[in-house]
Amino acid sequence: MRQRKVKNEEEKIARYNHWIVEEPTDRKGRWSEAFDEACDGAALCSSTAGAGASMGEREKDAATPELYLEIGCGKGKFITEMARRHPDRRYVAVEGAGTVVLRALEKAAGVRATILEDDDVLADGDDDGRDERYEHVGRDERAEELIVGEPLNNIRFITDYVQTLGDIFEKGEIRGIYLNFSDPWPKERHAKRRLTHRKYLTEYRKILSPGSILEFKSDNDDLFQFSAQEFYNFGLEILELTDDLHGVLTGPLVPTVVTDQQGTPVKLPGPGEGAALSAQVTTEYEDRFTEAGKNVHYCRVRF
Predict the structure, then answer these.
(1) How many structural domains comprise the chain?
(2) Which among 163, 178, 166 is positioned nearest to 207, based on CA atoms?
(3) What 8-state DSSP symbol labels residue 242?
(4) For residue 56, which phi and psi values (nearest 5 degrees)?
(5) What does the alpha-carbon distance between residue 158 and residue 101 come to, in Å, rounded to a whole number?
(6) pLDDT digits (tens, 9 = 90+) for 204-247
(7) I want to staple 282 with a disulfide (CB 3.0 to 4.6 A). Which of 116, 218, 239, 286 is the partner?
(8) CATH of the domain at 170
(9) What's the rounded Cα separation, in Å, for the pair 260 and 263?
(10) Is 98 in contact with 105 (CB distance < 8 Å)?
């Protein structure tokens, strides 16, 4: 689905500068500073103990929280919910599409909705004049922001596309990576652009601490098949795998098959605790697929 074009997008994104890391390469090896910096008096930065605003003070008597990364956070439903559930962890979300990252920033700031203005432009193909999040607000209302939740201070955003993770994170600085509904790049000549290609797995290994976890979700059967085989060939330990995370598929299921060098199918583990937890924290796309009865693939691997 094509995204709504937001009027004054850059200006609106700038309102949430507290959550944006402008020069991520400068944070390499010292990401804790991005979370410890003061809010400069911004009202949106005041938060309760559970949201992590006082993280800097809490660290005086505790170890530095583990750092987790989501590449392609979209509108941020997944990563902000993870941050809310785990205030003892820190999260970095990467998203280069301005329209969707604005919605993710709003969620991190505790903003329920930014009311659609008359001259906001809709992308071709939109069959509705407003986002579903605005359903409770009348069109004639012009409030700019509605604050209904506590802001999160244990999450930061990189609002750009990242080419080399090693330029941004130090060796072993990341404890876990989330890849949710990544671009499948279906043409074979574009295989190296897939975020589960061995080229990227090599990058992940550099920044992940030993024993770290990567969790991958996809609705695309071909991408998931490719990814599972790539994980195995790369030598990663496949901890959990399921082709229907939410158990909604009513039609025939084509199972994912991973083979060894001789072409013999490898016995794969089924879903476990990780899948059960992942099914509880979903993305906007995931909710849409599940409601439509489309299966979601899930895999959890260890580096």
Answers:
(1) 1
(2) 166
(3) E
(4) -60, -45
(5) 9
(6) 999 999 999 999 999 999 999 999 999 999 999 999 999 999 99
(7) 286
(8) 3.40.50.150
(9) 5
(10) no
- Residues known to be catalytic: 183
Question: Cα angle vertex 127, ends 124, 128, to 5°?
Answer: 110
Query: Which residues 6+ apart lie within 8 Å of 160 measured at CB?
Result: 24, 94, 96
Q: Is residue 3 part of a domain?
A: no
d(CA 177, CA 194): 15
pLDDT of 142 higher than 80: no
Looking at the DSSP assignment, which residues form a beta bridge with residue 302? Answer: 213, 237
Contacts 24+ apart (CB under 8 A), 160-167: 160/24, 160/94, 160/96, 161/94, 161/96, 162/24, 162/71, 162/94, 162/96, 164/203, 165/203, 165/204, 165/206, 165/207, 166/203, 166/206, 166/207, 167/25, 167/28
Q: Which domain holds residue 245?
A: 9-302
